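Methods — Computational structure assignment.
A single polypeptide chain was analysed. Its primary sequence is given first, followed by the predicted tertiary structure written as structure tokens.
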Amino acid sequence: MYKDSASFNGIIGGLDSDEADGRHFLSNTTVAPPVGTVGQTEQSSECCNKGPAKKQKKFATKSEELQYWQVQYFIGEVEKQEREKQLLDIRIRMLLKEEMRRDQNVVDEIINGKFFEDEI
């Protein structure tokens, strides 16, 4: 039979050998806190005592609730389109900078005479 369960499970070492016992493979083991300290589960936490982040709206009718959610949806759509517009503005600025850089490179090549050397 096997010397101990560690070698049976394919982990090298064990209680009777000089090799490591393989406990480093057990990453989910918890370590007890030092004596005299309060454990994390015993500490009072303010986050658990707080109420919901947003108070739920109360609606008198379903049509009011529908109107509210439609407004919320369109507010989100407007914000999304504003972000997309900002991204497109940035992309346009990047493309214009790239175009200006290429134009400047062509001008520099003309000034240095490299542009006409290739054609001859």
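Note: The chain is about 50% helix and 0% strand.
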